[in-house]
Amino acid sequence: MDLAQSQESDSDDAGPAPSPVDGALRMFDAIRHCPKPVIARVQGPALGGGVGLVFCADIRIARRDVYFRLSEVERGLVPAVIARYIVPDVGPMRARQLMMTARPVTATEALHAWPGFLTEVVDGERALDAAVAAYCQTLRANAPQAMADAKRLVAVLGGGEAAAAAVEEEKAVGVVKQVFTRMMTSDEAAYGIGEFLAKRRPNWDDFIAKSKL
Question: Which family does it belong to (predicted)?
Fold first, then answer.
């Protein structure tokens, strides 16, 4: 998300614009539900939406020296869009920890302490390329349609019966849009984005004290 653009959009009185959450959901869904295998090659730190992109992939390979971080709450924001891709894979407890603490999680920790986060961790760029190439070779040896069907089957079974999964999907999208809309019109977000643009770290104690006046 472009925080500067978001703040400019909020101050523009030209009329209602298409919700950015719709475009973001379409992009992440296109990757998540792509019938072909998707590999995330993580060679540097993944922050915010970058973490969401990693969780949209079927196979996730990272260098050992990278880290993952959801820092949105430091700016009065919520990782609303990407939450629907992260929570099912790491579970509610881990997701709360990742989103509420905003602390960085190293690749090694993500692999060993966070089931459902990463597939493999390697040392250095050459090893990363080799690991990606090895998975590509393995996947090319399998039937494309069978892999696509297996991927779809996992998506459905991960949410229960097909009908129930469809209902839950619709409900999840509704909650994501609700949280995103509330977040982008909140005083917290306005303050957090303003401090970000001013290159200052938000002082939330000061913000809370002033908001009570």
Answer: Belongs to the enoyl-CoA hydratase/isomerase family.
